[in-house]
Amino acid sequence: FILESIKEEVPTHPMTHLLTIRDKGLEIVEVKIPPESTTVGKPIKELSLPPGSRLVLIIPKEHKPRVPASDTILRDGDRVIAVTTPESEEALRAVLRGA
User: Fold this and answer.
1) Residue 97 to residues 2, 5, 63: CA-CA distances in angstroms?
2) DSSP E strands: which ranges in 1-99?
3) SS3 helix, strand, coil % of the chain, rounded to 5?
4) Is this model's pTM higher than 0.90 or not?
5) Where are the domains of the chain?
6) Cβ-contact 34, 98 below 8 angstroms
7) pLDDT tens per residue, range 23-53
8) What is the CATH T-level fold of the domain 12-97, as seen in this structure?
9) 8 A C-beta contact, residue 18 and residue 66
10) Which of the 8 DSSP states describes residue 22?
């Protein structure tokens, strides 16, 4: 019960920083795909990911996490774990959120 209450109170951010690897100039981030995103229903190979960005894990709403392939289709509610550079972070968010 307490955990559910906490989940309800925590705001959902478009992009969550998970880890910064300063000496390599990399960020590991999580992006949740919203229902209105233009990426919904598209394979990863059709996305114009910014330089230095790679999708490394897809966590679907109701399935086990998996390492994406180029033909992996993104779905509403998928949580995407990605590696990117600080310079490409905002562009990656825009691509995945469909902005």
Assistant:
1) 30, 26, 21
2) 15-21, 26-32, 54-59, 79-84
3) 25, 30, 45
4) no
5) 12-97
6) yes
7) 888 999 999 999 999 999 999 999 999 999 9
8) Alpha-Beta Plaits (3.30.70)
9) no
10) G
